[in-house]
Amino acid sequence: MEARILLIEDTASDAELIQEAFKESHFSYRLDLATDGEEALRILRAQDEKPHLVLLDLNLPKKNGLDVLKDIRRDSDPLLMTVPVVILTNSKSRKDVLRAYTHGCNAYVHKPINFDRLVSILQVTSQFWFDCATVPTTVAVGTQRISSEFPPPSSRRRKK
Q: How many other C-beta atoms can be found within 10 angstroms of the C-beta atom of residue 153?
């Protein structure tokens, strides 16, 4: 299985380092990049196949990471609202950590300065989410959903 990851990161140098760190990980993945909160939500809502994991920075232009997280968790598409979201940020603020977990992040990770440490953190994160955990997007087959409990978003529109 090719892991689909959406990296939401506005700092070009951080995005490049994260991309390089993933190349060191030696697992099959597709990494998409969004550089602001609004772009991230557009990408997430437009994709029929949701990413298996979202890596979300907090300090983003247009819409900050916490607001993106809130929108993901409140979305009407159950596959989007349940996508695992790992906060990957420079902030060590206790307030940011508490807010992120309060709004439904699955993990909060401080970006290390050391490249080898970044590679290690991303490998451990990837191992957990792709080798150990079962995520909602892995129980959907293509665009056909296994559970009739969650019909496709187009069939959930309100009737007038």
A: 15
Q: Cα 119 from chain centroid?
A: 18
CATH of the domain spanning 3-156, picked from 3.30.200.20, 3.40.449.10, 3.40.50.2300, 3.30.565.10:
3.40.50.2300
The answer for 152, left when phi > 0, alpha when psi is -120 to 50, beta otherwise, is: beta
Within 13 Å, how many C-alpha atoms sit on residue 48's CB side? 9
Q: What pTM, to 2 d.p., does this model score?
A: 0.82
Torsion, CA 93, CA 123, CA 140, CA 36, rounded to 10: 40
The Cα–Cα gap between 154 and 137 comes to 18
Distance CA 68, CA 76 (A): 14
Q: Residues 64, 80, 99, CA angle at the centre, nearest 5°?
A: 40
**Banded pLDDT at 1 (limits 50, 70, 90):** low
Q: Where are the domains of the chain?
A: 3-156
